[in-house]
Amino acid sequence: MPLRSQLFSGSKELQACLTTDAAHVVPGARGEHVALIQSALVRFRFLSIDDARSEARFYGPRTTAAVLAYKREFKIINRNYQSSADNIVGRMTIASLDHGIFVVDDL
What we know:
- By secondary structure, this protein is mainly α.
- The chain is built from 5 helices and no strands.
- The protein has helices at 12-19, 32-43, 49-54, 61-73, 91-106.
- The two termini are 22 Å apart.
- The mean pLDDT is 96.
């Protein structure tokens, strides 16, 4: 299923993240797709606006910490091979962020 939120639906990188393991977004990544993830994390209050600005379009330490906090809060863990959350935006994480933004924007 494609990404549905207005925030994410136009991003080829994030759409690929939803379907392909090699396209997962990892610390150190740069680009507009990282800025979109940061925007969602700001909206959900896992990343401050100042931290998002300081790491704009860069998946740096503050964004990494925010992703990990988000995943811990929502228990996003692939139980097939994980026992705790990691700091990677993969299929489950992007699907969760997309769903959350879609629901919030629809209110």
